[in-house]
Design goal:
Blueprint: E1 2-9, E2 15-16, H1 17-25, E3 35-41, E4 46-50, E5 60-69, E6 83-84, E7 90-98, H2 101-108, H3 119-130, H4 134-137, E8 140-148, E9 153-158, E10 167-170, E11 174-178, H5 181-185, H6 196-204, E12 221-223, E13 228-233, E14 239-243, H7 257-275, E15 282-285, H8 290-302, E16 308-313, H9 322-332, E17 335-340, H10 343-356, H11 365-378, E18 383-385, H12 390-394, H13 398-410, H14 416-427, H15 431-442, H16 483-494, H17 496-508, E19 513-515, H18 521-528, H19 543-548, H20 555-558, H21 570-573, H22 579-586, H23 599-610, H24 617-632
Parallel strand pairs: 15-16, 15-18, 16-17, 18-19
Antiparallel strand pairs: 1-5, 1-11, 2-5, 3-4, 3-5, 6-7, 7-8, 8-9, 9-13, 10-11, 10-12, 13-14
Helix pairs in contact: 2-3, 10-11, 11-17, 13-14, 22-24
């Protein structure tokens, strides 16, 4: 796990050694355990540099790539990247993990000579053996760069769900890539055009609709898409884009519940098992929900380990799950740390984040994860497992109940009336909420929100925009999803991309790697092949998960229908502890954001929030974060 970066140049154009040095230095927080890179000069000399020893910053290079390393497997210097295949025809840099590398290595060991205990070396030999077919064999979270010296190609590949980032910039002279956008922008001399469509979406839309097509706030910096790989020809600069997995290919199979439970149980066990592989200490996040609890129960009961766990003690009864967490801790006899959250601690971490921000993160929950990672890192722990993905894969959010009811009604299911009555009774929702939802998803209006139950009351923020043509055609038109369509959209667009980017940036902020057992692609595939009747029943969400993993989840947790989720009283703090911070960003007409929003309209939403007419907390976060980012990137953006 690390921060990777590099460049390729074309047409007798070269970049200096100092460029790769700076790109890696800018990601030192991601990988403090050493910096190394491989490059080729303008006169075809090769270099392998560790920790910038013997560097000639003015030496011209045709290409270079390397990493700032967080040593997770094989913490010796043998793990410094790039790592070559046995034949030395293939060189690999990787950010992330191939969790099943031992199984792949077993298949290759008779043919290839392994010099390290790293998964990166397994990638190099696997690619030499199988080419791009190797990507289908990898189970993990990864962004990989492969230099094929024999074919004069560089291959860029990203994991199926896009858990690990990989950004790139290309023009007719160069291709730059990195784990973070700022490593690219700080290496380019020219100013970059802002992606005004992205700016408009952050201002006008809820966070689930901020990003499109792997874009960033810079028009010409994008991401390698999940489950895709790019092949770049070093001779002519030709770029080919290919795919090795497709989330839309899985169809429902008529499994019995018994069959499914067995498959989910066995797959989950293996998912956790391979994510426990590390030469460093690991810990777990625990909430009052069933996802993190299932992971902990599995580790404790099946693998007989005594996990160290962390939780936040949240100062708001709306979000505090201490009682539920204490039940889990007591039953499983866990070594646990509650981390106190206060406005002062939040603001301290917020200021630190603003100093180093790469791209704006979607919600103020990001700061909570930075606080968690800071505490975990302080205990010399470098790997943490969490329950991210359980809700998306097994259908556990509040709006999933509405989609389940909608599809039962639409398909004239005999179960609709009983499920509808149960939902109203258990969640204190009225019929009007459901029928308004049906009307909303079936309307031809251009949708401004994917979240019918949004805190802001589905407020239309497009009135904030100034000087930007909002692209109405890119707004979502179809929201009447089937259950599987809703899962796929949550996994690929609406929630998981934001959760995994938060995991990546917030934990790497303190050199900690986050792992998500529920995002194992095999569990995703199983869920997409499962009948929707196994997702929600009698007002219980995630029925398949609850039943499959019931031996790992304390009964009181398993039968609890409550859904809270990690959150904080940001909406209240805006009017108190964070009032100065909001004013610093949105109180001065000279702030850069007012090039794109009307000062008068922004003041109106602040007032509405202050008098409790609307909860604009998340939008105020968006605007403050965008303003901070614009200030930080003034020298790079135009």
């Amino acid at each position: 796990m690390c921060g990777i970066a590099g460049f390729i140049t074309f047409k007798n154009f070269f970049l200096k050694q100092k460029v790769i040095q700076e790109m890696l230095r800018n990601q030192k927080h991601r990988g403090p355990d050493g910096t190394s890179w491989f490059g080729m000069s303008d006169i075809n000399n090769f270099y392998f540099i560790k920790d910038n020893n013997n560097i000639n910053i003015n030496q011209n290079l045709r290409f270079a790539f390397g990493c700032s390393r967080l040593a997770i497997n094989d913490i010796s210097d043998l793990g410094m990247q790039p790592i070559s295949s046995s034949s030395e025809k293939i060189l690999v840099c990787m950010n992330g993990e191939i969790f099943n590398f031992l199984e792949i290595k077993e298949k290759l060991k008779n043919k290839y000579n392994f010099k390290t205990k790293t998964d990166t070396e397994v990638v190099a030999n696997a690619y030499e053996e199988w080419g791009a077919e190797a990507f289908k064999k990898f189970n993990g979270q990864f962004a990989i760069v492969i230099l094929d010296l024999e074919k004069n190609k560089v291959i860029f590949v990203r994991d199926r769900l896009g858990i690990m980032p990989l950004y790139y910039f290309i023009d007719d002279k160069k291709f730059l890539f990195s784990s973070e956008v700022s490593a690219i922008t700080k290496s380019l001399k020219e100013k970059m055009d802002l992606n005004l469509d992205q700016v408009a979406r952050i201002i006008a839309l809820p966070y689930k609709l901020h990003n499109t097509k792997n874009s960033t706030l810079f028009k010409r910096i994008k991401q390698i898409p999940p489950s895709k790989y790019f092949e770049l020809d070093l001779i002519n600069g030709k770029l080919e884009k290919k795919s090795y997995w497709n989330i839309n290919q899985f169809k429902i199979i008529d499994f019995s519940l018994k069959e499914l439970k067995k498959k989910v149980f066995e797959t989950f066990i293996d998912s956790v098992k391979i994510r426990l592989r590390t030469d460093r200490s690991f810990a777990f996040l625990v909430s009052g929900g069933i996802d993190s609890t299932a992971i902990l129960g599995c580790v404790k009961k099946f693998f007989k380990l005594n996990p160290t766990t962390f939780s936040l003690d949240l100062p708001d009864e709306r979000f505090n799950e201490n009682d539920s967490i204490c039940e889990v801790i007591k039953e499983l006899k866990l070594d646990h740390s509650f981390i106190k959250l206060s406005p002062e601690i939040f603001i301290e971490m917020l200021r630190l984040y603003e100093e180093k921000m790469d791209l704006p993160l979607a919600t103020p929950n990001a700061i909570l994860h930075m606080i968690l990672s800071n505490s975990i890192s302080s205990k010399n722990i470098n790997v943490v497992l969490n329950g991210v993905g359980g809700d998306e894969v097994f259908f556990g959010y509040h709006d999933h109940f509405l989609y389940n009811l909608y599809n039962l009604k639409k398909n004239k299911s005999k179960y609709f009336e009983s499920e509808f009555s149960s939902w109203i009774k258990n969640f204190k929702k009225g019929e009007k909420t459901f029928y308004n939802f049906c009307k909303y998803v079936e309307s031809d209006d251009k949708k401004i929100s994917t979240d019918f139950l949004s805190r802001s009351g589905n407020f239309d923020y497009r009135g904030l925009l100034k000087g930007i043509e909002f692209n109405e055609e890119k707004l979502e038109r179809k929201l009447d999803y089937t259950v599987n369509e809703k899962k796929i959209n949550d996994i690929t667009k609406f929630t998981i991309p934001y959760s995994t980017r938060m995991d990546d940036y917030c934990y790497f902020f303190n050199s900690v790697e986050a792992r998500q057992p529920f995002l194992d692609h095999r569990l995703v595939e199983l869920s997409l092949q499962s009948s929707e009747k196994f997702m929600i029943r009698n007002s219980f969400s995630k029925v398949l998960l609850r039943q499959s993993l019931k031996e790992f989840i304390p009964k009181k947790r398993r039968i609890d229908k409550k859904k809270i989720g990690l959150n904080l009283p940001f909406d209240k703090w805006i009017n108190s502890n964070l009032k100065l911070w909001v004013h610093e960003n949105l109180g001065n007409k000279e702030s850069p954001i007012f090039k794109y929003i009307y000062f008068k309209n922004e003041k109106k939403i602040i007032y509405q929030h202050n008098v409790n007419n609307f909860n604009h907390g998340l939008k105020i976060w968006d605007l403050c974060m965008l303003n901070t980012w614009l200030k930080r990137n003034n020298e790079f953006a135009r």
